[in-house]
Design goal:
The chain is an alpha/beta fold. It folds into three domains: 2-116, CBS-domain (Roll); 131-359, Type I PLP-dependent aspartate aminotransferase-like (Major domain) (Aspartate Aminotransferase, domain 2); 363-486, Alpha-Beta Complex (Aspartate Aminotransferase, domain 1), CATH 3.90.1150. The protein contains 15 helices and 21 strands. Strand 13 and strand 14 form a beta hairpin. Helix 4 packs antiparallel against helix 11, helix 5 (151-163) packs parallel to helix 11 (349-359) and helix 6 (175-185) crosses helix 7 (203-210). The two termini are 28 Å apart.
Amino acid sequence: MILFSDSSDFSLNSLLISKKATIRDTLQVINTGALGFALVVNENDTFHGIVTDGDIRRALLTGCSLDSNISDIIKPHYVTSRADEEWKEIARKFDHKIRFIPILDKDDKITDIAVMESRLRIPVAEPKLGKKELEYVTDCILSGWISSSGEYIKKFESGFADYCNCTYGVATSNGTTALHLALLALGVGPGDEVLVPDLTFIATANAVTYTGAKPVFVDIESDTWNIDPKELVPKINRNTKGIIAVHLYGHPADMDPLLEIAKKNNIWIIEDAAEAHGAEYKGRKVGGIGDIGVFSFYGNKIITTGEGGMVVTNSLDIAERVQILRDHGMDKNHRYWHPYLGYNYRMTNMQAAVGLAQLERIDEILEKKIAIADEYNRLLGQNPFITVPPRKEYAKNVYWMYSILLQGDFGEKRDELMDYLGKYGIDTRPFFPPLHQQPIYQNKCEDLIISNDVSKRGLNLPSSVKITINDVRFISNKINHFIKLDS
């Protein structure tokens, strides 16, 4: 990645020093800037050269004093770039000797500074794995228990269920299969209808379709981007079996109204918490509020097993049905006897080993996710053209993605902003398209106004726990800069 100076606490001016300055003055600038160098400028503020702490050290060893003029030790040649160069062109100029490059405007004045880091791009999401994950997986390999049986599966299932304040946990091969099994365990099939939010990843609707049932799309709340209970009620009929409440991008859906509607209409609620590990609704962890909770542990999720999922519930009957259906529909007490049509939706012991290690530090992961979001909020929250992620009074948002909405004239320029950020090595993702616009579900749902609008204006920014606060500042400053340029 190329890290520009505007991603840091100090201003670019803190790195500048006049060519008439002394070595003593320059050392003070280097110490304040904390990057190991100072940018030397002429009387008219045009670029003159670079002095590093190493240059000064060598000058002092060869007889210069602290009162010597800095111009006496400036190197004659420097690599620079122009403000209109793309980040890839700048990146090509770095090598083992060149670690920072001044960015100059057409008048040779310094507008920015590029510093070489190990990454060339800031990804939207990436897993953070450590020694404990390696230790547990190694233990699996050495024990020989690497497939779908083993102690780590049991520990991960019970540990994650306990974390969600649920009695039972059943690990699965991924989040989509977890949702499919949950629906099957509730008896969903052909002729049934299941209410799902229109703004979510397509797996939510697909899992319903796998059972032969029909997903019915419901518009979202404009402030939380989750399913709107008021829009849900008119769509309930005698074929409606349940509701899937998605906790989109890490913010809980408003569960109390949904629970009241479900109870009144004698239907169930599945919580699709694939993006919301550790999120809370009125102090209760999501996944343990409805009849069933489902989670994903894909590589970009808050905690990961590479691929994997989990069904959590407080119902022994549901848990046992999920277990049987997950394992080819085989009778638990009669090996190789299959009274039900089942599936091979099992998680491996090695995946569970990674998951258990991740679970052991989930609080640390969530703390970092929230710190990243807080810094984004500080830097973007005052921009009138940006709506930062929701944080309702009843909710603990865990910010699976740091998601913003562009407002005003910039609502139509989301893709332009994505391209602009991409030039600086910043990866982004648009919001999910509304389900009713997907080719396989396309219909004329003209009443789904909010999901249409939010989807078009929504943008997900890098929010991995591996990014730094300086990365957040860099990204935020580029966004604010884009809006300033275009306003």
